[in-house]
Amino acid sequence: MILMLDIHVFRDAPDRIRADLAKRKMDDSIVSDILRMDEDWRGIKFEVDQLRKKRNSSARMIAAAKKSGDVDAVERTLEEVQSLGSAIEEMESKASSMMKKRDSLRMQVPNLLHEDVPIGENDEKNVEINRHGEPPDFGFDPRTHNEIIEKNGWVDLTRGAKVSGSRQYFLIGDLARLEMALQQYSTDFLTDRGYTLIQPPLMMNRKSYEGVTDLSDFENVMYGIDPDGYYLIATSEHPLTAMRMDEIIEPTELPIKLVGVSPCFRREVGAHGLSDRGIWRVHQFTKVEQVVICKPEDSWNYHKELLENAKSLWDNLGLHYRVVDICTGDMGTVASRKYDLEAWLPGAGEFKEVVSCSNCTDYQANRLKMRYRKSDGNESVHTLNSTAVATSRALVAIIEQYQTEDGVVRVPEVLIPLMRGVTELRSQK
Prior knowledge:
The protein is an alpha+beta fold. It has helices spanning 7-12, 14-23, 29-68, 71-106, 145-152, 157-164, 174-191, 206-212, 215-218, 237-242, 299-316, 363-368, 391-401, and strands at 127-132, 155-156, 170-171, 196-198, 203-205, 224-225, 230-232, 248-249, 256-265, 284-294, 321-325, 337-345, 350-359, 371-372, 379-380, 382-390, 409-410, 424-425.
């Protein structure tokens, strides 16, 4: 685990961290270990500072001894300065080693949860907040998206696997055009709300990636590029958040509100259910992502804004979905609070996650050394992110909710102008 809480949280509010770990059903003894190592590190740093003061004083004595012509005093003091220099070097090495040990433990402590996060062991304890739209009433047994795309020839999974391996695909005809319409509509929707459009690089180096996610957990779902040491991005959230790393941001720049559009690459290893087939869980997909970098006191308002943006966009698509408050056992490492939007898939007969909306507070910014300027000392910013549309999953929701009995799929009204007036997806067969 690479990201970390600010060390001052451990020093000033250790009981808050212990209570937070208890919510997650995690051992809190690590807090005492970190505090003990931090105390040892500060003790060594104090000794180093005292040795430096003594060396500086001795250096001044050399100048005085030279001026008086006392050769013996000069030699004695030079020996003392050299001895002090060796002691300082040894103590600094010890301090560095102690700090690395302390921080290796800090990195194992997840972000502090918002006080209103529901308590629960797994995703079954996530709390449904509300539902939007009406579930479609077909009057027939709805098909799964996989059946519909196969019937109409809109996706070629077989040739995708031949060319690139399993869970790769070709989008064909009107479904490919619908995917592009989703990108255009969602980016227009967010730029109209004051978000700056960004197309990020599709590769990141390890240092940048360590600042935005827990690589010990996430690395197994990412594609590495060897021998160059880069990773294909799993979401544009990662490069957009990392782009201001190692910077002091002027307060007049905040908030920074971005909408990123990019292909995303994930291994998606492991066994998956029937509803994950087709184009639901794939290795490459396009995603439109919201990212906000802001002052700490503003982040919870922007968390609400990101969620409202996502809800409004999905409402405009005319899709039935629910909003879920993610519980402690399903939260992960980085977010302090997270909401999901889960779209209804009538063919599969279940709700499935299509949007994830997170406030990461200063957890990413601490590692990225991303701060904003203040008159009384620079402070870490807060970072937030939310899906707007992951296009492959949105296509699945549209296919299943807008299907007709004969296997035709209607186009959501707001996308028709971007489809050149096409109101139904035309079969490729």
